[in-house]
Amino acid sequence: MAHADMTDSRRQTKAGRPTPGDALALPHVIEAIATSLDNQKDFSSFLHVVPRSLWTPAVTAFLDCTAAMPYSLVASWPRIVLNNIELPPSVLALLAATLPLRPRIQLKCFADANPLASLVTVLGPALNSVMSIDLHNTTVTPRLGRLLAAWLSTAPATKLRLASLDQMDHDGAIAFCDALQANTTLQELAISHVPSLGGFHGRTLPVSLRSLEWNGPLFRVVNVATLTDLATAVGPTQLERLACNVFGLLATYPAAASMLSQLQSLVVSWWSADSMPALIAGLSSVPALTSLDLCKSNLSTSMELFMRTLATTCMHLKTLSVDDDLTRDGSAALLSGVLQLPRLATLDLSMHLLDVLHVLPELVAAGRQLRHLALSTIECDNYDLEKRAICKALAQVHDVPFVLQTLPEDMDKFVVDALSPRADRRHQCDLDFE
After folding, report:
1. Labelling 311: which of 38, 319, 407, 434 has CA 20 to 30 A away?
2. Cα–Cα nearest to 397, from 370, 415, 382
3. What 8-state DSSP symbol labels residue 1?
4. For residue 7, what are the contacts with CB-CB under 8 A and spacing of at least 6?
5. Cβ(157)–Cβ(151) under 8 Å?
6. Looking at the domain assignment, is residue 388 inside a domain?
7. CA 176 – CA 190 distance, rounded (Å)
């Protein structure tokens, strides 16, 4: 009897206090568990085994987001991506309801900046990444500069791309540059063909910035005042990557020297043949460079000097890309120069496919050092036949260094044996035809 009384007493005690399961069955606890998960699959799976009555309003709003406008808004925990910013008030309210979860809200490309005002007002700091604003051939709202300044001032911004803005009022441009200078979180900034911003009007860029793309108008001379401002803007930064179509000229300004001296990745495009001496001279200012990408830079006639300069100024270079439709002589000079860059492991170049057969010795010699070689070849009527001919020629080279992950169909067995990956190779260079 005493034992029975003790058992009843224990049952009464348990009934009188919440069990661990009861303690977890609270909306704020369910929200905390859900938001601790790091992907949409786990986030959704957990919530859908819990009664909907235990979802907080913020959780409910997040799960309802994609259904609201499936092509304009994608919610995948912990992110919400907006592919369209012209959103009705009901959807803006839904987004606002998700803010207690602290989602990462990103904007993709949009062409009309007017709705940005509503987004900045509603979302504020949660709008942490405007990925692309391209206003080519559209009417720009006169308040764009101020809207972007407001966003930079209220949100922990990390990425921003502005392209093809032919019009922005001067006061708005100054407000935007002031906000850039005051920002402490921006990591990636791309400004392409936005003449009103100049070189940021004497303001400096955030020290948090790691990647900058700045391209002035094509086929126009960038004036001294703009270059001076640009050098001032980048001077205090610790950029890891710079994409700039006036790099050679920028390198002549002492204010940019500190940034350039520790730069690791450089992209230069649309460089005229007349300006090639400035580009080559500028290489001495980037001794820490490990990656260099040149596009439409008219390098063929200066390739030998270019490669010699790289060998003496950029000795840490590991990756080189030349998308320039090189001539046969230019290709030969580039491939020969590889041997002067002992750390170079990856090379991408663009050339006529048939020219490959005429630079085969240089190609093979470069392949004995490289780990990856990509040939971006210019399409022609006989592309398949020429590619097969190159594979056959390479297969006949003694101890050929190249391997192809995908060979043309029905190749001869000796070609397959020579160019297929094998574990017993002393060295192999992956060769891609792109």
Report:
1. 434
2. 415
3. -
4. none
5. yes
6. yes
7. 14
Read off the pTM.
0.78
* Burial state string for 186-206 with b = 16 or more CB within 10 A and e = fewer than 16: bebbbbbbbebbbbbbebbbb
Residue ranges making up the domain that contains 342: 264-434
For residues 236 and 255, the answer to whether their CB atoms sit within 8 Å is no
Residue with tokens 């500190």: 258
374: CATH: 3.80.10.10
Residue in 243, 239, 303 with CA at minimum distance from that of residue 269: 243
Residues 6+ apart with CB under 8 A from 243: 190, 212, 213, 214, 215, 266, 267, 268, 269, 293
Amino acid in position 111: A
Neighbours of 244 (CB within 10 A): 20
Residue 54 DSSP symbol: G
Contacts 24+ apart (CB under 8 A), 355-359: 355/327, 355/328, 355/331, 356/390, 357/389, 357/390, 357/393, 358/328, 358/332, 359/328, 359/331, 359/332, 359/335
Rounded to whole angstroms, what are the CA distances from 101 to 23, 62, 104, 121, 222? 21, 9, 9, 18, 46
Show the tokens assigned to 157: 């911004």
Instruction: Provide the residue-wise pLDDT of the chain in tens; the chain has 434 residues.
Output: 444 444 444 444 444 444 445 556 799 999 999 999 999 999 999 999 999 999 999 999 999 987 888 778 889 999 888 887 788 889 889 999 998 998 888 777 666 666 777 777 787 667 666 555 666 545 555 677 888 888 788 777 788 888 777 677 889 899 999 999 999 989 999 998 888 899 999 999 999 999 999 987 766 788 999 999 999 999 999 999 999 989 999 999 999 999 999 999 999 987 665 578 888 999 999 999 999 999 887 788 889 999 999 999 999 999 999 988 888 999 999 999 999 999 999 999 988 888 898 999 999 999 999 999 998 876 666 778 888 899 999 999 999 999 998 888 888 999 999 998 887 777 889 999 87
Number of domains in the chain: 1
One-character DSSP codes across 295-307: ES---GGGHHHHH
- Asked if the structure places residue 125 within a domain, the reply is no
Distance CA 155, CA 152 (A): 6
